[in-house]
Amino acid sequence: MNTVKALEAFLDVRVVLAHAGGERFYHSALHLARKFENVYLEATWVGAPGVREMLPELGSTKMFFSSDLPCQIPVELAKYRSLIHDPEALERIMHKNLAEVREDAVRTRPLVTSPPSSRRRGKWWR
To answer: Which of 3, 19, 73, 100 could join 45 in a cystine, given CB atoms 3.0 to 4.6 angstroms apart?
Structure first.
């Protein structure tokens, strides 16, 4: 099943395209995020020019900040801070978008509805 068919079949599932396709395929990821309301981009491995291209097309509501490694966080922060001068847009990308998507997912589809039967004794969530 190709990506478009899968996204069309599961319109109620939120999809985060990790690395937004990377430097090589970010145009494809950008196309999917524009086409599908439920597709979000996390652009860790896309350079500043690519993110600069994404921002006017998607706005700040469909992108997430992320980092693969702790040592990469300063670079990713610098990338977004150099491109986004609106504090609200920066805050959305840094944490609000992911928090809203996660909150909505938990509200509509609980992550745990009951403890697994093998762990019912004691504190099963540990």
So the answer is: 19
Helices (H) and strands (E) in the chain, counts: 6, 3
Our CA angle for 87, 103, 71, nearest 5°, is 55
Do 10 and 2 form a contact (C-beta atoms < 8 A)? no
Structural domains of the chain, ranges and CATH numbers in brackets: 3-119 (3.20.20.140)
Q: Are 63 and 54 in contact (CB under 8 A)?
A: yes
Share of the chain above pLDDT 90, in %: 72
CA gap 34, 86 in Å, rounded: 22
Task: Round to whole Å and give the CA distance between 55 and 59.
Answer: 5
Q: What angle do CA 68, 97, 15 make, to 5 degrees?
A: 70
Q: What is the pLDDT of residues 32-90, one digit of tens each?
A: 999 999 999 999 999 999 999 999 999 999 999 999 899 999 999 999 999 999 999 99
